[in-house]
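Class, look over these structure tokens:
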Amino acid sequence: MSERKDKPANSSMAMDEKEMKELGKEMEELETNQELKKNGRRPDPVQNEKGKKE
């Protein structure tokens, strides 16, 4: 992940477009919940959605 030196003024994850593109590339490489389950791992729990099941 990229090393951030300053906190962004707008409280977002990315300070600029370049960092946003880098974060997008990192997210594309993350395993999906289905892939995690297939590999015997537990995905993060669903948050703020009542009654939703995976």
Observations:
- The mean pLDDT is 78.
- The two ends are 28 Å apart (CA to CA).
